[in-house]
Recover the amino acids of this structure.
DNA sequence: CTGAAAGCGCTAACAC
DNA sequence: GTGTTAGCGCTTTCAG
């Protein structure tokens, strides 16, 4: 940079100002500087810049090693987060920390590598958020805690999505509707989507006067299959199912096929917050409310960066709906009502 | 750090040495230093460290915005890459750059933020690799160029995997075997897996004396469905199919169901390099050679870091096989041979 | 094994 | 508008 300054016949500070527009620079001067930079093939050093300015222009994306495993949804999210960071001249660094390792998180946020964090998979009561608040690290949640009134977040509107899902099935004439949630463990851990969706399902079903049955289910096809067998036996009148558990949905479909029944003629299966790429793998392809993963990633990063750059008020709170794509797993309630529960077991 | 040194009654340099073990430090002294650090709640600053030492302890993961879209496989890869970096005291930063944007890559690698890069989705002829070589940036490829003799890489052994796949079907008695590749575009672009798998398929089929038919196919269920219809008409004797195209495989399965045929009784479908999570979504679940994504991510990052830390020779080249998981989409060739091609069109 | 001091490459007062 | 200069917080010679 010193060389650039000399070659352009200006002071280093002027080069610096020209470089990051901190202060106006003469048009003519600026041109000379740019020329000198090109000729010397000069690139400013990110570390030195960060050290001197106390702004690294790095942000971290904190994503937990999920019990549930990472899916396509998460990948879309991460992709768009990285892209958005890049568009804003920021770098995205990835921290894969367990949800309960505040120790690690402390170390990471205090070594000065990043200016702020976007944090995924937030729980209703989340000690990581407490930590971030306490230490004053700028952050934006994907999801939200129970007490998020003063923090920025971008989240899927699970209440609304679940309500829409139930209404969709009820609108097709279904009068007994089931709900398949994520695992009991994630529910008990206060994982927001599980809790909010379950509540919303119960409330909506009640409002609409449809009979309801709600279950947690491990995230696996086998668990989904077992659950379906139980459900169909316990609730012979069940014809519609809302599933917020991608992997379980495959099991449900398989169990139905083995039962000799058909989708959507006998049963309607509506998948919630499942990615498009996965919904189209099943047969029949699943009607789905799919999550706005990319938008969420973009929004979370942009919100954080805007606040870091002082470009926005401190608080941005957004709830995004899932978008319904009707495929082939839903249809009107069968005319004769539910099929008899015989043949429930596979041959 | 200055404060820590004073409180411990030593020079700053000693603190520095104690901190990163660059030089032996008296046991007693080290303890005093540690105490002082704890008492002052001191954290070394990553940027300053990097600036002074010229080693940021950051590495970048370059992943392209894929034509094919990012899947679960990629997510597992990214996860394990981040984890491995973290275990080695490194940070992983994500760069989502187009395969042909060498300009951007130049800027990124020269701003000194990272010490090296792991680069995904390498093509047989890849100008990004040329660039990295030219600029002397340490790197490790995931995949490999055609001329990779002097560079480190970790790749899936597509030759072997494809050979195993063909043999598996041939071993089940199938005598006409098809291959569904990724898109023609990715093949033409010299995407390694497409090219190598196609070659290996052709060679193996020839060796085994089975009749073969090989096709590229857009990455979508619709394309897979269309392709199957064409295939079944053109090759009435076809009973076994190797599919290296996750999304197309769903279409194939759907087309077969619509044709009124059954898997695996009438046709065997063997999926290659498809993730476990997706293979289990279909009905029947796909027999799959699934890719060692996590190992690949770990290996790539570890290789790069080892070389950065001078802990290994300059060259590490590894080819990992995919692992066969037999599910329910493959079986012996039907006794009567292929079913007649009538009813190929859906009702 | 320890200490003093010269930077790493840049930013941001402060003066002009 | 532009120039001077004192750091940012650490590492690493070099001398002891």
């Amino acid at each position: 940079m010193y060389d650039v300054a000399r070659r352009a016949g200006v002071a280093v500070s002027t080069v610096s100002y020209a470089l990051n527009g901190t202060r106006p620079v003469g048009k003519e001067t600026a041109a000379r500087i740019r020329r000198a930079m090109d000729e010397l093939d000069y690139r400013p050093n990110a570390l030195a810049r960060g050290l001197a300015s106390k702004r690294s222009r790095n942000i971290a994306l904190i994503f937990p090693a999920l019990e549930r495993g990472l899916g396509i949804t998460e990948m879309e999210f991460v992709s768009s987060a990285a892209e958005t960071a890049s568009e804003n001249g920021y770098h995205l660094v990835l921290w894969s920390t367990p949800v309960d390792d505040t120790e690690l998180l402390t170390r990471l946020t205090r070594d000065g590598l990043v200016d702020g964090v976007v944090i995924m998979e937030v729980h209703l009561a989340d000690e990581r958020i407490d930590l971030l608040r306490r230490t004053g690290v700028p952050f934006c949640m994907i999801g939200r805690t129970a007490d998020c009134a003063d923090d920025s977040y971008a989240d899927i509107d699970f209440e609304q999505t679940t309500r829409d899902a139930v209404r969709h099935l009820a609108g097709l004439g279904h009068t007994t509707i089931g709900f398949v949630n994520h695992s009991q463990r994630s529910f008990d851990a206060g994982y927001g989507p599980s809790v909010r969706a379950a509540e919303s399902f119960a409330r909506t079903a009640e409002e609409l006067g449809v009979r309801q049955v709600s279950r947690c289910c491990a995230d696996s096809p086998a668990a989904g299959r077992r659950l379906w067998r139980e459900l169909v036996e316990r609730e012979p009148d069940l014809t519609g199912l809302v599933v917020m558990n991608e992997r379980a949905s495959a099991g449900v479909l398989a169990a139905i096929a083995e039962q000799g029944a058909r989708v959507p003629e006998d049963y309607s299966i509506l998948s919630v917050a499942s990615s498009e790429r996965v919904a189209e793998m099943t047969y029949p392809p699943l009607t789905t409310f799919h999550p706005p993963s990319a938008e969420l990633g973009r929004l979370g990063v942009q919100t954080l960066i805007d606040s870091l750059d002082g470009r926005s008020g401190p608080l941005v709170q957004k709830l995004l709906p899932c978008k319904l794509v009707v495929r082939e797993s839903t249809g009107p309630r069968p005319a004769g009502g539910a099929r008899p529960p015989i043949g429930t077991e596979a041959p």
User: Anything to note?
Assistant: Chain A touches chain B through 50 residues (CB under 8 Å).
